[in-house]
Amino acid sequence: MTIVKCLVWDLDNTLWRGTVLEDDEVVLTDEIREVITTLDDRGILQAVASKNDHDLAWERLERLGVAEYFVLPRIGWGPKSQSVREIATELNFAPNTIAFIDDQPAERAEVAFHLPEVRCYPAEQAATLLSLPEFSPPVSTVDSRRRRLMYQAGFARDRAREAYSGPDEDFLRSLDLSMTIASAGEEELSRVEELTLRTSQMNATGVHYSDADLRALLTDPAHEVLVVTMGDRFGPHGAVGIILLEKKPSTWHLKLLATSCRVVSFGAGATILNWLTDQGARAGAHLVADFRRTDRNRMMEIAYRFAGFADSDCPCVSEVAGASAAGVERLHLEPSPRPAPTTLTLTAADIAPVTVSAAG
Questions:
Q1: What is residue 206's three-state secondary structure?
Q2: pLDDT tens-digit map of 21-32
Q3: Hey, how many other C-beta atoms are within 10 angstroms of the C-beta on 228?
Q4: Closest Cα to residue 276, out of 245, 297, 298?
Q5: Distance CA 281, CA 285 (A)
Q6: Which of 56-70, 204-218, 229-243, 344-358 has the highest mean pLDDT?
């Protein structure tokens, strides 16, 4: 079951009872208010696609105290399928992770015809959405509970970028970006597992590591489970990356690198790979990275290749534990020292070299 990442609400007789253009007041029931706030706590974004007068409808949302819960409202007179498509595109969400709810069968049919992967629900189901598996993510984390706030900060960041007329590097410096790379602890485990579930475009293998898998690796001195977090003057980005590394004395096996699409434009992937390459150079260890092609992770291959990873017949490629899984390529890099990033502040502890006994 694919979890819904964003629910798009119609307003009249769906989110609220009544019609803005005809009724003096509209009513938001306690049941629907609870659905809104609980979905927000679960990290499911919510948007609006409504045929209405924008200023009047938005004023009602503000008066009811729920306007803050909705990102990317589309309130106007165009086709709702176009509104839903625009929301999905701006969020960079696949259509099958979008849901749409409306009281009018014709509106649901119009969206379903143009966007068949979007799941459509009648307004009568609104109060029961919380019990449906597609609206029940398997994990709840600090980041999921503040996902809306992170996206809203991201939209403010995008507006600042559009208004900035200087070079991109100067804009990035103006953000006061910071990145931290640290070992995952108990609190970070669910955030790391969530990243392996949610990240597809910047996931080097598409492999999901469960909580149990990650807990087992945390106790293994030959493995590093590292979580990457970022923030800037607009607010936290939250956990944006995971590094899963198996260390041998002369070879480090990068089993998984996954980063959030939200931080691609900030050079997060390149910064992580440069830091890891520098760490490998300090330890005198070659790097071997797993890469499995999917229909969405072409950007990750580009990041690896740009960092210097390549096909190789170096003996260390055959030294990594186990045979390569079906469809997995192993890319090699003999590392050299890399400079510190110039557009963000990086905080990261050095990776401890593995001892021969720990390597087994």
A1: coil
A2: 988 889 999 999
A3: 28
A4: 245
A5: 6
A6: 56-70
